[in-house]
Design a protein that fits this description.
Structural class: alpha/beta
CATH architecture: 3-Layer(aba) Sandwich
CATH class: Alpha Beta
Bound molecules: nicotinamide-adenine-dinucleotide
Number of strands: 7
Distance between the termini: 44 Å
Strand content: 5-15%
Number of domains: 1
Helix content: 40-55%
Largest sheet: 7 strands, parallel
Radius of gyration: 17 Å
Oligomer: single chain
Shape: globular
CATH topology: Rossmann fold
Strand order of the largest sheet: 3-2-1-4-5-6-7
Number of helices: 8
């Protein structure tokens, strides 16, 4: 185990995975723990969080789980209180939860729009709202928000609510970074590109008839010839959460193997 986050306490939202294998949140929780952090793993799915805890503890790390819907103010208030209760502090807030819904304005209904914006954007506002007082008290903290290159670029299929949510996360990240820089708190965003995770084999695959064809198409879209994976996101999160990034705040760190170099903003 290394020590880039030694004795730090990290809340990771969506620390489980929506399917077998490694999602971004699960890999980030494990990567944080391998660097010495104590993990407060939050997920709507208790079994998914329990699996992450089992992996972390199996590697000699420390992990507590909490079942919550992070789009609910009461639940977020409770999870933050529980983390303080268990670990006494919060050094890192990793906002990973995000869902995808393929479709444009004509396909996505009002309730689905509201639901996605609540889960992807409101959740991050709520976690920041309840975690920041603890970070301010200590005069230190690192917040990492998981956005997407979909905030700037078309992914080749319509996903209007997802793109809008990720654009909002970028703006929120810059705004929080500005407000809290003088208080010792950094806030950054990670913009993964096309990653091969359980999430895309689930929700994104709904936009395609054939999953294998979808995976091949995504690989071919990437200049390196293959999609990234959850560890590419996780390793970036470790860097941004650690002291190595102590002078970095308010950035949108693109992790896409060069994909966006080949794209025009919002070209279809
Ligand atoms: N895979 C990609 O290609 C890709 C690309 C860019 C960005 N991202 C972003 O990565 C993030 C998710 O990555 P992942 O691989 O961990 O996804 P995932 O779907 O595998 O896991 C997310 C976890 O979040 C939990 N969750 C969902 N809604 C929740 C809620 N309301 N409250 C609490 N927990 C909830 C799920 O139960 C699941 O265990 C998202 O923000 C997504 O937009 C992914």
């Amino acid at each position: 185990m290394a020590d880039r986050l030694q004795d730090k306490v990290a809340i990771v939202t969506g620390a489980g995975s929506s399917g077998p294998g490694w999602g971004n949140g699960k890999a980030t929780a494990a990567a944080f723990a391998r660097e010495g952090a104590k993990i407060f793993a939050v997920d709507l799915n208790a079994d998914a969080a329990a699996e992450t805890k089992q992996i972390i503890e199996g590697e000699g790390g420390v992990c507590e789980t909490f079942t919550a819907d992070v789009s609910s103010d009461g639940a977020v208030q409770d999870l933050v209180a529980a983390c303080i209760d268990v670990f006494g502090r919060i050094d890192v807030l990793h906002n990973n939860v995000g869902i995808v819904e393929p479709g444009g304005p004509e396909e996505i209904g009002e309730n689905a729009w509201d639901n996605l914006i609540d889960i992807n954007v409101k959740s991050m506002y709520l976690t920041c709202r309840h975690v920041l007082p603890h970070m301010v008290e200590r005069g230190a903290g690192a917040i990492v928000n998981v956005s997407s290159i979909a905030s700037f670029y078309s992914l080749g299929y319509a996903c209007v609510s997802y793109s809008a949510s990720k654009g909002a996360i970028n703006a929120m990240t810059r705004n929080i970074a500005t407000q809290y820089a003088s208080k010792g708190i950094r806030c950054n965003a990670i913009l993964p590109g096309l990653m091969d995770t359980p999430l895309i084999r689930g929700a994104v695959a709904d936009a395609y008839d054939d999953i294998d064809a979808m995976l091949k198409k995504r690989d071919a879209q990437c200049p390196m010839g293959f999609m990234g994976n959850a560890w590419d996101t996780a390793n970036t999160a470790v860097f941004l959460a650690s002291e190595e990034a102590r002078y970095i705040t308010g950035i949108e760190l693109v992790v896409d193997g060069g994909l966006t170099l080949t794209m025009s903003p919002m070209a279809g």
